User: Fold this.
Amino acid sequence: MSVTTPVRLVVVHPDKEVLAQAVAARLLTRVLDVQSVRSPVHVVLTGGTVGIASLAAVAASPLVPAVDWSGVHLWWGDERFLPDDDPDRNETQARDALLDGLIAEHGLPEANVHPMPGPTSVASPEEGAAAYAALLAAAGPGEGDGSAVPAFDVLLLGMGPDGHVASLFPGHEGLAARGTTTGVHGSPKPPPERVSLTFDAIRSAREVWIVAAGAEKAEQVAAALAGKPVTEVPAGGAVGQTRTLWLLDAEAAGGPK
Ligand SMILES: O=C1O[C@H](COP(=O)(O)O)[C@@H](O)[C@H](O)[C@H]1O
Assistant:
């Protein structure tokens, strides 16, 4: 199975620092653009190297005070199934890089931050996935069938060197999971247990942005862009309803090291 989207844009920046700055500027501009026509804005965050570096770049941007953060809701594409405050949780890293500052100084309500549950509050990744699905459905358009999610304005995804996005790994059963969330076991990247959005939820987003840096990502970036099967390169299956952006540094795009 491979998936294509009518509007796909590949943007290559010289290195990972510039990439993070560019993702941050693009994200803040997107939030401001959406806020000029509707509210609330729904953004899905990612973990990973460039994902967290981009949040740190947002925190340092002069555009931060221009956003009405009371109208922004923040979700996650995946989470490592670890206790609250664990430094390896995507949530913890995002809070340290950006969210704590937005809450303390820029009016982001804690209630607008929607982390995926971990073992502090649920017994298993499946229970965490079900709880998150219910949270998404409650904030969604209210179809009442448990499959709804909010209309995500931007859904950010990092990509691993194996081509995984969120916690959807090559050859794993999570690739075929239905509904909006799935519990993950046996992740090849630690920790083994995780919670992830499904492809159905990812593909419902208005815009999907895949961010990747480093030569170790180049082979899978090229494979995804060439339409290799999603079972082998999950990133190729991450497409948005209106736009899919591949935001890369030169190494991930296959340029010289
Ligand atoms: O474990 C994860 O890894 C991916 C990619 O991380 P990176 O450090 O190679 O950029 C990340 O997108 C995902 O959210 C995270 O849980």
Remarks:
- The chain has one domain: 11-238.
- Residues 46-51, 78, 80, 90, 157-158, 160, 167, 189 surround LXAUTJHC (CB under 6 Å).
- The chain has a mean pLDDT of 95.
